[in-house]
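Bench log. Compound arrived from synthesis this morning; before running ITC I wanted a structural hypothesis for how FE2/S2 (inorganic) cluster sits in the protein. Inputs:
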Amino acid sequence: MPQVIFLNDPGADGEPKRITVPTGTTLLDAAKKAHAQVGYACGGVCACSTCHVYVRKGGASLSRQKDSEEDILDKAFDVRSSSRLSCQSKLGAEDVEVEISRESRQAYFDEHPDERG
Ligand code: FES
């Protein structure tokens, strides 16, 4: 089963949060399971871009980007070649390392105000 590592979201031990999930799981569902700070304003239906992450490693093993994902990413902030919508990116067999976008983290705290530092 692949492991997802959230490079810029340390847990209580100071290490990046990580989670092992079954192949086919979306990065967003992995983030939720790991309690990583990834926002999801539309609930994961490819309609908002708040689940925007940068894939640092293992991107080739993720499900291919569909036109609908590209259309939504066009509206996101600070889009890079490594950008993906986590709700649309399903894991293959490889481990994946991601960096949570500023936009996504902001959305997460808007959704979870009690977790603001
Ligand atoms: Fe809205 Fe992914 S949660 S596009």
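What the model suggests: The first strand starts at residue 3 and ends at 10. The beta strands are 3-10, 16-20, 52-57, 83-85, 96-100.
ITC booked for Thursday regardless.
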